[in-house]
Design goal:
30% of the residues lie in helices and 19% in strands. Its main location: nucleus.
């Protein structure tokens, strides 16, 4: 260990080398303060902007056929287990579809529920060829339902100008497609207002 005089000499020499422009008197004055603050300017760290992961565009999704169902998969029997899952999901959502359940409460929950797997029937339509189509909803888009029928045919049914019915445990609910023009994700956060009369 160095003595106090050697340490003092070392610090003086170090400051002289570090700050050559400073006079000896100024260095001595700094030493009498018992504390030496060395100036240090840290480099400013540039914040790296996080790159947002870009998803596929609508054109790319069409080209990749992400939402296309292969012809060999277009079979009604394949999706019956999906329908059973959907029925259990609705029962849990509505706390059991009991006879004394309030229709408005069930209707309100069905409006926001996920309909993938539900069996629906077109009951009214401005286009007569759609009336009577029954099947399991495979895909729901903003403007259309994709439905697989018992005949293993994939039907694309527009929501506009169509009325759909779905039945579960004796409870029948009607969906007015013209008032249902939302994506499933948007619909779950939508506040629906009760209306007196609804036309096609």
């Amino acid at each position: 260990p160095q003595g106090s005089e050697e340490a003092k000499t070392f610090v003086h020499a170090f400051l002289k080398r570090s700050m050559p422009k400073m006079k000896d008197e100024a260095i001595q004055e700094m030493l009498t303060r018992k504390a030496v603050v060395l100036e240090h300017y840290p480099k400013k760290k540039t914040k790296q902007k996080r790159k947002k992961t870009k998803g596929f565009t609508a054109k790319q999704r069409r080209e990749l056929r992400l939402f296309e169902i292969e012809p060999e998969q277009q079979r009604y029997a394949i999706f019956l287990p999906l329908h059973e899952l959907w029925k259990q999901y609705i029962r849990d959502l509505c706390h059991g579809l009991k006879p004394d359940a309030q229709p408005h409460m069930i209707q309100g929950k069905l409006l926001k529920a996920d309909l993938h797997g539900a069996i629906v029937t077109v009951t009214k339509s401005k286009c007569p060829s759609y009336v009577g189509i029954t099947g399991i909803i495979l895909q729901e888009f903003k403007h259309v339902f994709k439905i697989i029928t018992k005949e293993d045919k994939l039907k694309v049914v527009p929501k506009l100008n169509n009325v759909f019915s779905l039945e579960l445990d004796g409870f029948i609910s009607y969906i007015y497609g013209s008032k249902f023009l939302f994506r499933a994700s948007e619909r779950s956060a939508k506040k629906f207002k009760l209306k007196g009369t609804i036309d096609l």
